[in-house]
Design brief:
It comes from Eruca vesicaria subsp. sativa. The protein is mostly helical. Helix content is 81%, strand content 0%.
């Protein structure tokens, strides 16, 4: 009789352990799927995924992407400043990158205040800023590293705007 009770107790313990492990595994898969689903909404998921590692909350993902974009824009701005005097398209990019930094800082402030409309307005302006820079190179038939950086920044800002619509 005691052997039977021990067998039943072990059986229940194994069943509970399997249920807990299954739950934990499914929650990890669900979290990964949610992260993937955030980036799957964007136009450039391969640029989104490294920026929102392990983040499943759209608000946090948007905030992290804004921060990364702002840092990348400041780096680009410092690089562009060295060449702005000799090239009109680069001078335009310098001005628009400066505007983009301002717009991104305000978008970050808006997301902290939970002002989604303001955040979307500032992010839209940043996307436009990067677009103006790229257009300047297209209009002057130039291709250089500044244009390539501007294209990448425009793509990331587009992703950022898309993530903001999920907030």
């Amino acid at each position: 009789m005691a052997g039977r009770d021990i067998f039943q107790l072990r059986f229940v313990a194994v069943a509970v352990s399997v249920a807990v492990l299954t739950f934990l595994a499914s929650s990890q898969v669900t979290e990964a799927a949610r992260m993937m689903s955030l980036c799957s909404h964007t136009a450039y998921p391969s640029l989104c995924q490294p920026l929102v590692k392990r983040i499943t909350n759209p608000r946090r993902a948007t905030h992290r992407t804004i921060q990364a974009l702002e840092a990348k824009t400041k780096q680009a701005l410092a690089e562009v400043a060295r060449y702005k005097d000799g090239n009109q398209a680069i001078a335009t990019c310098y001005a628009t990158f400066s505007d983009a930094v301002y717009n991104l800082a305000n978008a970050r402030k808006s997301i902290r205040k939970r002002d989604v409309l303001g955040m979307n307005t500032f992010l839209t302006a940043a996307v436009s800023d990067y677009g103006v820079c790229v257009e300047g190179f297209i209009d002057s038939n130039q291709v250089n590293t500044v244009q390539n950086v501007a294209v990448d920044l425009r793509k990331i800002s587009s992703n950022c705007l898309t993530l903001s619509t999920l907030v």
